[in-house]
Write a structure and sequence with these properties.
By secondary structure, the protein is mainly beta. Among the domains are: 1-27 and 556-594, no CATH class; 370-552, 7 Propeller (Methylamine Dehydrogenase, Chain H), CATH 2.130.10.10. The strands form 12 sheets. The protein has a 4-stranded antiparallel β-sheet with strand order 1-28-27-26, with no helix packed on it. Strands 2-3-4-5 form a 4-stranded antiparallel β-sheet, with no helix packed on it. A hairpin with an 8-residue loop joins β43 (511-515) and β44. α1 packs antiparallel against α2 and α2 packs across α5 (561-572). It is elongated and about 95 Å long. The model has no long low-confidence stretch (mean pLDDT 88).
């Protein structure tokens, strides 16, 4: 990001404009790396539930960092901490470490402490519950000649046992508590059976999951609970698997391509699920209905991750980002932008059509079969396919309509003046006279097209995914922007008002923006997420691109280079340092870029 910004500040060229636009929109927003002077080999690490606070223990000191601001919050010295450290609560306020007669739980901010009086901490492990108010302890022992473990749930502040189970298994992950501290889930040592206990009533919950569901949940190393406290869940080879023991049934799984899910985390509200597997990181909405065609549910967005191991995946709705810790023994936290996908405007029911008006505002309606264009004065022209031909309608001060073409022709574009209609067969029909002329020589059957508002260009995408730019008459090909890729998706297309920019959606859900004065460049790539792109539109002046997807009415992407550069400065926490400048631009004098 900073390199792209430095290039644009150094040379204002089409290439650097594309680079800074792409940098402003890229998902990889920031990386926090623990400074070397406070780093130790095999030191433990924790990330708070929102991913904002990073905690580590180095040389008997608990050190905490603000990830987003990349600054140290506090350093607390505690004798014996490095050897005795046990866990840090998910809110990053409390740290637990063992001693001779049990464990101490200490507040890192104000120094308050509590005792977990378990007796000698030999063959004992423990962890905080999700609320931070409880602490789960497992102590190994022998009973009737066999190894057994006693599991206890402690109230941290009252320093007393809430629940004790003497017949636990000494191996495998610790039992896990529900967010409200009411239920405890554990698996038998053979990884075959799931057990759920009511901590308050001190009884086992009657539930009978299918044997396969129990095996999938218990063979995961990261069993957890859903935020509604009703169901254990885990990332498995089948995706995210959940068993609702109140309803005594499985919830719809969230499948992931590849080899399944290695880790799963729920946000505290229960609206979202984060998963990590061989296909990368994925964000899901739990209220998304299953598709009507019977296909599996799809995540809101997926991110490719290069590192072989990911831990502590976290969602921060307030900042609209996802954070994760890279590797199991690495002090690196990466932040990914969610591009406005965490929005109250999210619609549970997916839309199939959308359009924008000339000022970039969402249109009230969009033709399902046909084309739509808006003149500079706001007059709307539509070309709709009917049984009698193509129905061309003008809405505005002088409304009217007429039918042109034949019933076998499909309209895919109409110019903003309402004078010319483009058909899928590559014909351009004069609306006033009904005369037609052939265009787009050498192209396949067209799927969609769009005229530039200034009357200079005509962009067309064929059924094979090839995207080309022509003169407004469709007679002279100016450039091939995208080669054929056998896609079956209909891309969304839009020109800026002056024709200087062209935007096109892609099959992977991203959007590419080209500078029409430099069509041979690759274009700026803007990731979107949220399902297929339904419509694109520019604000006046082309400073922002509006993007409508199946579940969100619109989001904005900055295209004005100056505004995009400001976004890069904000997201990257400033411009390139002198060290970075010397490394990448050694022959250029250093300058401030933010």
């Amino acid at each position: 990001m900073r390199l792209a910004l430095a290039a644009w500040r150094t040379a204002y060229l089409p290439e650097t404009r594309e680079a800074v636009r792409t940098a402003a929109a890229q998902s990889d927003q920031a990386a926090f790396t623990q400074p070397a002077q406070v780093r130790a080999l095999n030191a433990p690490y924790w990330l708070s539930s929102d991913g904002r606070i990073f905690t580590t223990v180095v040389r008997d000191k608990a050190v905490q960092w603000d990830v987003s601001r990349q600054r140290q919050l506090r350093e607390v010295a505690l004798p014996g901490l490095s050897e005795g450290i046990t866990d840090v609560s998910v809110d990053a306020r409390w740290i637990a470490y063992r001693g001779r007669d049990g464990a101490t739980v200490r507040n890192l901010a104000n120094g308050a402490s509590h005792r977990i009086a378990t007796g000698p901490w030999t063959d004992t492990d423990g962890a905080f519950g999700p609320s931070g108010r409880t602490f789960v302890v497992r102590r190994e022992g022998r009973e009737a000649g066999a190894e057994r473990a006693t599991v206890e749930v402690w109230d941290v502040r009252r320093e007393r046992v809430l629940f004790r189970y003497p017949g636990g298994d000494p191996d495998g992950p610790l039992p896990v508590l529900s967010p409200n501290d009411r239920f405890l889930a554990r698996c038998t040592h053979d990884g075959e059976q799931l057990r759920v206990w009511d901590v308050v009533e001190r009884r086992r919950v009657a539930t009978d999951p299918p044997a396969r569901t129990q095996r999938l949940l218990c063979r995961s190393d990261q069993l957890t609970f859903t935020p509604d406290n009703r169901a254990p869940a885990a990332g498995t080879t089948d995706g995210v698997v959940t068993w609702d023991f109140h309803a005594d049934r499985a919830r719809p799984p969230l499948p992931m391509p590849g080899k399944g899910v290695n880790a799963v985390e729920f946000d505290p509200t229960g609206a979202y699920v984060l998963s990590w597997g061989s296909a990368g990181l994925a964000l899901w909405r739990t209220d998304s209905p299953a598709p009507a065609d019977g296909c599996p549910r799809r995540p809101v967005v997926t991110f490719r991750v290069e590192t072989p191991a990911v831990t502590d995946i976290r969602l921060d709705p307030r900042q609209g980002v996802l954070r994760y810790r890279e590797g199991s023994q690495a002090g690196v936290v990466r932040t990914l932008s969610l591009h406005g996908l965490i929005s109250p405007a999210w619609r549970k029911k997916a839309r199939t059509e959308a359009a924008f008006d000339v000022d970039g505002r969402p249109a009230a309606s969009a033709p399902r079969y046909g084309a739509r264009a808006v003149a500079a004065d706001g007059t709307v022209h539509t070309a709709v396919n009917t049984r009698d031909g193509i129905r061309v309608t003008q809405q505005g001060p002088h409304p009217g309509s007429r039918t042109i073409g034949t019933r076998t022709e499909d309209a895919i574009a109409i110019d903003p003046a309402g004078r010319t209609v483009v058909t899928a067969e590559g014909a351009l029909i004069d609306v006033g006279t009904g005369r037609r002329r052939r265009g787009f020589e050498g192209e396949d059957l067209l799927r969609t097209a769009v005229f530039s508002p200034d009357g200079r260009f005509l962009a067309a995408a064929d059924t094979q995914g090839r995207l080309t730019v022509w003169d407004a008459g469709g007679q002279h090909r100016i450039a091939v922007l995208a080669a054929a890729d056998s896609t079956v998706e209909r891309p969304a297309l839009a020109f800026s008002a002056d024709g200087s920019l062209l935007a096109s959606s892609r099959a992977d859900g991203s959007v590419r923006v080209w500078d029409t004065a430099s069509p041979r460049l690759a274009g700026a790539t803007l990731p979107t997420g949220g399902g297929p792109v339904l419509a694109l539109g520019f604000t006046p002046g082309g400073g922002e691109l509006r993007i409508a997807t199946a579940h969100l009415p619109w989001r904005s992407a900055q295209l004005a280079p100056g505004r995009a550069a400001d976004d890069v400065c904000a997201r990257a926490g400033g411009g390139a340092t002198r060290t970075e400048w010397r490394r990448y631009l050694p022959d250029v004098p250093y300058r401030q870029t933010c």
